Amino acid sequence: MKAALLVGPQKIEIRDLPVPVPREGEVLVRVREAGICGTDFAKYRGDLGGDFPVIAGHEAVGEIADLGLGVVGIHIGERVAIQPNFACGQCETCRSGMENICPNRVRLGLDVDGVFAEYVTAPRKYVWTLPEGLSDSAAALTEPLALALHGFQKSAPVPTALIARKELLIQGAMTYRDEFRAAIDLLQKGEIRSDLFITNIYPLEKLPEALAGFRSPQRVKDIVKISS
Ligand SMILES: [Zn+2]
Ligand SMILES: [Zn+2]
Questions:
Q1: Which of 20, 77, 92, 100 has its CA 20 to 30 A from that of 106?
Q2: What's the gap in Å between 95 CA and the centre of ligand 2?
Q3: What is the CATH number of the domain that holds 21?
Q4: Domain count, the chain
Q5: Which of 25-34, 117-126, 195-204 has the lowest mean pLDDT?
Q6: How far is the CA of 125 from the centre of ligand 2 (A)?
Q7: Is residue 171 part of a domain?
Q8: Quick one: which ligand is closest to 39's CA?
Q9: Which residues have beta carbons under 5 A from ligand 1 (an ion)?
Q10: CB 19 within 8 A of CB 28
């Protein structure tokens, strides 16, 4: 598969790598589009530490290409968004219902290979099927929207629909809990237009260029188109 491999700080190589094989409980996703996030930029710059080489990227829409052992309730060909922080499910934090802040969580694109590639694996539990009629580009931004919803819901007892009518700046480190479904619903109903934030769509080969221009004032949210 074609993949953008981050071999070291500010060094990306477009490589042909083996397609990953989904393990028990995992699915293989054929990535269609992926959002470029500040986390990717920080990893690219070498500011986040962690291992190299790694395939970065964690905001993605794609379709199910294969199922690992024991996977139920989802089919090959279904379109999905990936929730990119995988909790351990075992620790005290997870058992008390706060999987979102699991200290052992595995972060897609940082701890394991991410979505700037034609294929990626993810636990079944962390892929969300998408409704028809929602564009791939809008759906690729489900994850940042879920983050914003979580921050918004924590900050004020106000209906989330108000986000669509008023501008809102949310800053801070936020980790969503159950906001993926809500984010998908808001996108599908058109109450939030994530596509309006998209400034550039790059092919995977141009990821180095896209990351180099991350600080450009003209840029709001850039997308990498990997397959259709
Ligand atoms: Zn992100
Ligand atoms: Zn845990």
A1: 77
A2: 7
A3: 3.90.180.10
A4: 1
A5: 195-204
A6: 14
A7: no
A8: 1
A9: 37, 59
A10: yes
